[in-house]
Amino acid sequence: MSSKVEFDIKNPEKIWFKNLKTAREAKGWTQVKLSMEAGISQQSVTYYETGTRVPSLEVAQRLAQVLDTTIDYLLGGDNYITQHYSNSAAKDGEILQMIVESNSDKGNN
What we know:
The protein is mainly alpha-helical. It has a domain at 12-84: lambda repressor-like DNA-binding domains (434 Repressor (Amino-terminal Domain), Orthogonal Bundle), CATH 1.10.260. Helix content is 66%, strand content 0%.
């Protein structure tokens, strides 16, 4: 899961379904196991992994959380954050804090 994939803004589902399947397989889970952990139907997992449908933001967040990754990774971004943080709420807070600090540092120069 450490490889970075280019994000296709016109077709995000092309990246999404590949990375979702890769993340699921990295945990050694079946589609049924992922559906149970995320509280969605196995059919939905199949739709998401084949690119037939794209999940809502709420479902995407649940999938990322149970797969121990981030929505950023699932959409084609870097998986760096997941390797260094384990709690998704803490991740979000720390990311926000880093952004705020970065922006305030730029304003001070």
